[in-house]
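Input/output pair, single chain:
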Amino acid sequence: MMTHGLKERLPAAKRLFGTHITLSDPEVSAVLSRAGFDFVLLEADNTEASYSALRNHLAALRTGGVPALVRVSLISENHINRVLELGPHGIIFSGLNTADHVRRAVSMSLYPPEGTRHFNPLRSVTYKIEEAYELAKGENESFCRMIQLDTAEAIRNLAEIVRVKGINGFFLAPGDLTRPDGSPEALFGPDTGELILGAAELLRQSQIPLGVSLLRAGAGVPEYWLGLGARIFAIGSDAGYIADGARDNLGMLKNPEHSLQ
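Output:
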């Protein structure tokens, strides 16, 4: 499987820009793969995407030469193995709160003896069955593994989590972050803000890449995250681009100064 240098680029890249794909039609990936993004983040569990839909998205992105990260929240060996066998370039594990949880998830993405990933590679080694063993061994090294910090508990345990071997970076997604009192909050409160600042500083000191997942980026938002040391940005989504484009066009047509009115 080609990596397009995604994992290799993380430590040294000044910035990487990607976007989210949430819709099931692979034509979306075919279009966005030509927009100039460094990577695409595919949602596996928070949308209606099936394994077949993910496979078709990945095929379209591979044709367009854009690496794909798949974000998963269901951490089971069967699910992780099926997602990995579809051939993404990396995975983002979400919903993990402790170092033990993270260690178990990372193990599921590594072939033995380093981990517990099932050995039955087909699509993930582009059907080169006769070379499967050597290609699979190489994937342990080339595959990109990232962790999304979703909860106050995960952030408080970050000092232990960063010591888990095999992690290539972390993502923060403010829209998914659960406040210390247990309630979800998409906007920053004083408590979530302190958690984010602490996490960003720890990752900076540990020299581990930090990414941020945002469905929208208003004025000052990218600058805020750049100030925290974020270098990987997944911003916007396919559904958002469609909705924004439709509203913009309709607004133009309904403008009183437009000749169609």
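The mean pLDDT is 86. The beta strands are 16-21, 39-43, 68-72, 90-93, 144-149, 169-172, 210-214, 232-237.
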